[in-house]
Amino acid sequence: MSRMTLTHPVDGRFGAFGGQYVPETLMSALQELEDMWHEAKADPQFQLELAGHRRAFIGRPTPLYAATRLSEHFGGTHIHFKREDLCHTGAHKLNNAVGQALLALRMGKKRIIAETGAGQHGVAAATVCARFGLDCTVYMGTEDMHRQSMNVRRMKLLGAQVVEVKSGSKTLKDATTEAIRDWVTNVRTTHYIIGSVVGPHPYPEMVRDLQRVIGDEAREQYLSLDGKLPDVVVACIGGGSNAIGIFTAFLDDREVGLVGVEAAGKGIRTGEHAASLVGGRPGVLHGSYSYVLQNGDGQILPTHSISAGLDYPGVGPEHSFLRDIERVEYVAVTDKDALAAFKLCTRLEGIMPALEPAHAIHHAGVIAKELGPGGSILVCLSGRGDKDMDSVDGG
Amino acid sequence: MVAKAGTRLESALRAKGDLKLVAYMMAGHPTAKRSIDVGKRLAASGIAALEIGIPHSDPLADGPVIQRAGKVALEHGMTVSGALDVAKAVAAEGVPVVLMTYINPVLSYDPRKFSAEAAQAGVAGVIVPDLPIEEAEPVTGWLRSAALDTVFMVAPTTPPDRISTICSHSSGFVYCVTVTGITGARKELPEGIPALLKEVKSRTSLPVAAGFGISRQEHLKALKGNADAAVVGSAIVDEIERGGDGVSLVRELLKACR
């Protein structure tokens, strides 16, 4: 598979996956967005501006960190973290939000809407809106507002209006559906900042382009540190933006294994999980064709994960493609194991990870035992865990 | 010639001085049995065609009334196959039936099987609001081969050239979305509607139906002469939710159509 095939969707698709399954009302806005994004991407002035915000506002480049005590605990394989938890606002989500806010300014759209699960993308959207003087509305499920109440308070302090979504499972899926309805209604004045590599084309490609800085930096940092690349790169997957962000730079390095970790919740067999790639089948959700958790009649299923950011029945179409061509291996980790990894990492490294990357840390431990001493693993530590205090105390 | 006469939907919806009325109801709302009953009564109420919704868990283009109806229908066990049964029972009354659903239930059911069974049920056409023309071919191919019409939507945000392309893909009629937004009754329709309808009419010989937000006599009076037909959805579903059948509302609205 050539690099061109992997990084440039053809007609808005990664292989069979992707597309634009949206009401006609949005089609011209998607065309405008695609044109604008390609124009901005090629504009040195835009790139310069973006680089400046990455440096001074987000705090990039984020460090590569040797997790030595965790490495020792898991039997001697070298484990490194890409520290996206040190991004301003505490997660990788700001990488995307800053880029899309600059794009909204370029399009002359003054109103921003966003959906959020864990609240990290909502906070990122509220943050860029405060920074650039844009009006911000964030859709969030009732269930998530309870378990991530600190992020709700942050968004409100930043000046965003947080709209409670009471329909369906009251989580990320329903917040996204509601945000799309808002966009259909206010498309002329509003830009929708989708928080992950999901949604209709060009979102999966655009969000990937904005998040790939994670892997571009990490690859270079790893090479200058070790002179070689890691054996395996591991990242957690809800919609899949931090994973695509770190994987993209390594796609052509065939010797590097790539592993995406979904949320197995209470266990895949219980049906109470959020692992679309492991336990779902292809279908359409939120404007693109990808792996989806659905019943036999095409109705989207309720999901469960202890981590609000992974609690989503769909996944980015590029991940579906990478799954089917077997470039990335996708696995799932339970609530229980993620919680244990959260506690382990906090105690051994003095780094409290978000529950989302705690799934990846657990699986890094599993791989470490296979690799043994001399092996090397790079984990995308996509966010910090302060927001999860309530869920963890309860667990 | 038969070909020139157009499809069943085409002739049913073409205005002849009056404005035709299309009603919408949800299969399985509130139950399968009751929705068949309501459908039969609506079929005899003077409407030109009946849209029957197949419920979906995530209806992106629908407002709260139709969302609730879909949720109730799903909770009461409605399925794609069950909705085809509802459509069959109602189509037997002679009214042209148009199925309206989202793409995922159709893909999941298998577009080929869906098309064949819809045709067998006596359905006249299908509308899929989250299936723009660019993505449509894998589904419309099967619908065409089952002699079903595929109705595409034009929105207030659709550029003129694209209106022509959409019209050329559409069969039966062209659905003109009157509001930039989701389904649901509005007090007033946007000012630019006659201009939009005129634009669409100038680019197609198919009948043009206006839909979304239409619920009042004054809306219909404003549409008369500009559109061939008007679709009334949420206002009828709202009546069904309250235990009614929408027939008196249809009769009331028909007065403004003549």
Please, could you describe this protein's structure?
The complex is a heterodimer of chains A (395) and B (258). With 395 residues, chain A is α/β, with parallel strands linked by helices. The radius of gyration of chain A is 19 Å and the shape is globular. With 258 residues, chain B is α/β, with parallel strands linked by helices. Chain B has a nine-stranded parallel β-sheet. In chain B, helix 3 packs parallel to helix 5 and helix 7 crosses helix 8. Chain B is globular, with a radius of gyration of 16 Å. The mean pLDDT of chain B is 95. Classes of the chains: A alpha/beta (395), B alpha/beta (258). Chains A and B meet through helix 2, helix 9 and strand 11 of A and helix 4, helix 6 and strand 6 of B.
Task: Note the quaternary state here.
Answer: heterodimer
Which stretches of chain A are poorly predicted, pLDDT < 50 over at least 5 residues?
1-5
Instruction: Briefly note the structural class of the backbone of chain B.
Output: alpha/beta
Structural class of chain A: alpha/beta
Task: Please outline what is shown here.
The complex is a heterodimer of chains A (395) and B (258). By secondary structure, chain A is of the alpha/beta class. Chain A has 17 helices and 14 strands.
